[in-house]
Amino acid sequence: MIRKSVDPEDNDEMGGTGVDLPFDGKSLQLLSQAVARLKDMVVITEAPTQEGEGPRIVFVNPAFTRIMGYAPEDVIGRTPRFMQGGRTQRSELDRIRRALEAGEPVTAQVINYTRAGSEVWLDLDISPIIGENGRPTHWIAIERDITLRKVRELAHATESAVIDMVAAGAGLQPILEKITRAIDSLSPKGRSSILLLNDGERYLSVGAAPNLPQTFSAAIDGLPIGPVAGSCGTAMHRKSRVIATDIATDPLWVPYRRLALDHGLHACRSDPIFGRNGRVIGSLAVYYPDAREPDPIDLALIERLGRVAGNAIERITQDLALRDSEERFRMVARVAADVVWDWDIARGRLWFGEGLSSHFGYEPAEPELGIESWLLRIHPDDRERVDADLRAFVASKRSSWIGEYRLIRADGSVAQVRDRGAVVRDARGLATRMVGSMVDITNEQALQEAVLRSQRMEAMGQLTGGIAHDFNNLLTVILGNAEMLGEALADDPQLGALAGITRMAAERGAELTGSLLAFARKQALDPKPTDVNRLVSGLDGLLRRTLGEHVEIEIVRGGGLWAAMVDGPQLESAILNLCINARDAMPDGGLLTIELANAHLDDAYAAMHDEVSPGQYVLIAVSDTGVGMPAKIAERAFDPFFTTKEMGRGSGLGLSMVHGFVKQSRGHVKIYSEVGEGTSVKLYLPRAHRGATGLEAPSPPARSVRGSGRILLVEDDSLVREHVCDQLSGLGYEVTSVANARAALDLFQQGATFDLLFTDVVMPGGMSGRQLAEAVQQIHPDLPVLFTSGYTENAIVHQGRLDPGVHLLQKPYRRADLAAKVKQVMEQG
């Protein structure tokens, strides 16, 4: 404490301030000289005379004017309260007041405000001057500006917090927000932002700006940097600090001036943020609500925290890049090798990656002892072979191994596996470690098998297509002549029988060709809405006569059964084939069940089966109680020429014909069989969505009906042409025949007229039967056309279905079929 008597007469030496000082004039002069060079502020106030009034300032030194911006005459006689503001600590003020009331010295740290409105942190040391009465007459305060120290403390605390956040794996945005909020806490009028430089270092991206208007941040996000791009965009472009003291007049803000002013932003200071390699990676800026120079606090804080932000951005960017790289590695590992394994041969330990669980259902545990656990998961039939092969490889000098085997999954199912490994050998050439990967190739193998089946079918289709045309031409002549011989030799039983045998042989040959075409999906189908209930009922008598009395037949008809879009005659043949196969599987008799029902195949089922489209189907299930088939036999049941019957009892084309017919009809076929229990073949035929008026019952047997009219026969095979010409003439028709389409077209162009064009489809000479028909109908639009062929390919059949409005008589055909079809087409006109 300072004790000093006061002489009021000496006040005039202070320049007529009208306040009482605890010094005489000479003492005051000495005091002023003593504190003039102090960097700290000295403020003397008198003790308050009335409760509630603050102490009045009676003296300030030059440091006060330099730091706070007030001249002595601006503050003498006023209380220090006018320098307090919104962020001045109320708790500290209360503590100071209590000390003064008690007449005790006190120290404190408070925020005051300069004349320009800037915050200043002050470290106060206040002591009383005690009068003769023992009570304080004045207070002398030594006030030190610690603003920069506070900035450093905050910057250090922020830097430490950022380091902790980075170490904890925090994201970039919360870290940048931490930095900007720290700046804003020491700059109450300023609002800071951190922008990042993205997309080839050309465009701004808002990293953090928690106290800036969101609409402003959204508007600048994505703007390009450049020489005239506001403070931040220009600072990044120049790679140096940019200060705009008045945005309203600053030329750098011309493109975005209205945007800033509309959001109450009138000044801005921006520093580029640099990475360790000197590359600009962002900017740190402070915006102000009035035109002004930036605060020294902001200058120091931005410079320090800008470096913190740069380090954080680089570190997190590197961490993200590393995480991306690791994630890409994991993704590549999952794609390239489903299950990674590591066999420490020297220590006898085997480790599996996480793919062991995701692909095969086994949870990977700690490294397993030896390879026995792996061997136990291999199918028993493959185990010994794989074990011997692997051990031979380890004992050899080779560096890589590959094997394929069946692996038993955790759920008991079997997967086909391709296993690859590479070995590490020591200086002696002994294997010490082996690393590899297992890939589940079950689906790949199934796809390969499907491709092979498709290739076999394509090859069969080409084979059948190549032979069907010529073979069916020959069968047409043989079958027709056999019929004519049979009629001519009706009175000679011996020769008539020979003619009958010839006819039957030709019919068997026709069935064989038809089966081949059906399997290869090359036959011409004529699908129509068909009442399957009525079709199967019509087969009842034929089935009972064909299958014999030792087979019991049960037909379960579906109520409300949909119509099926199918070729009725071909469906009859398929059902008959299935029933004959079922009979042969029950040599001692049994039960044959034909079940009809509506069915829906959903997306999940379609995804599991090739060539299946989800939708509504008519189900025909033919089941028997026969001997059944093992799984390996059932898998090949639809293969052409595959049969388990004894030699001479089957061609192996029955089920393959059914399979091809159903697939060509856009349906689905599935076989279920169990040894000793029986077999069930399920046909799924597409539902017909047309009205019931299109339903067709099986056609009645054809009859040889005579007719009249002029027919142009176009057939390139001379034997067939001569034979068919004779048959048509015998049926009462006037026939003109030519060998190719060009000759036929010439006749029409010369004015010849006919009642029917009867043409082969596949012919040499560059013009097919279909092309001939189209050309002729340009001349005679109403001329009926009947096509005939043993193999149509894509001329009049597309996707296995006869083109609409096309009439086709398939070779080989009987004379009755020829007569009926010609009559029908001519009558329909």
Protein topology:
Elements lengths: L1 E2 L21 H11 L5 E6 L10 E4 L1 H7 L3 H4 L14 H12 L4 E8 L5 E12 L5 E10 L1 H21 L4 H15 L4 E8 L4 E6 L5 H7 L9 H9 L3 E3 L12 H6 L4 E8 L5 E9 L7 H41 L2 E6 L4 E4 L2 H6 L7 E2 L2 H5 L3 H16 L4 E9 L5 E12 L5 E10 L1 H47 L4 H27 L8 E3 L1 H16 L3 E6 L7 E3 L1 H17 L5 E12 L1 H6 L6 E10 L6 H5 L18 H11 L3 E7 L3 E9 L23 E5 L3 H13 L3 E5 L2 H9 L6 E5 L8 H11 L5 E5 L7 E2 L2 E2 L5 E3 L4 H14 L1
Parallel strand pairs: 1-5, 19-21, 25-26, 25-27, 27-28, 28-31
Antiparallel strand pairs: 2-3, 2-6, 4-5, 5-6, 7-8, 7-11, 9-10, 10-11, 12-13, 12-17, 13-14, 15-16, 16-17, 18-20, 21-22, 22-24, 23-24, 29-30
Helix pairs in contact: 5-6, 5-10, 6-10, 14-15, 14-21, 15-20, 16-17, 17-20, 22-23
Task: Summarize the model shown.
The chain has 24 helices and 31 strands. Helix 14 runs antiparallel to helix 15 (about 495-520), helix 14 (about 440-490) crosses helix 21 (about 720-730) and helix 16 (about 530-545) packs parallel to helix 17.
Structure characterization notes:
The protein has 829 residues and is α+β, with helices and mostly antiparallel strands. Helices cover 41% and strands 24% of the residues. The protein has 24 helices and 31 strands. The strands form seven sheets. Strands 1, 2, 3, 4, 5 and 6 form a six-stranded mixed sheet that branches. Strands 14-13-12-17-16-15 form a six-stranded antiparallel sheet, with helices on both faces. α15 (493-519) crosses α20 and α17 (568-584) runs antiparallel to α20. The chain starts with a strand and ends with a helix. Mean pLDDT is 80; it is low at 1-20 and 692-698.
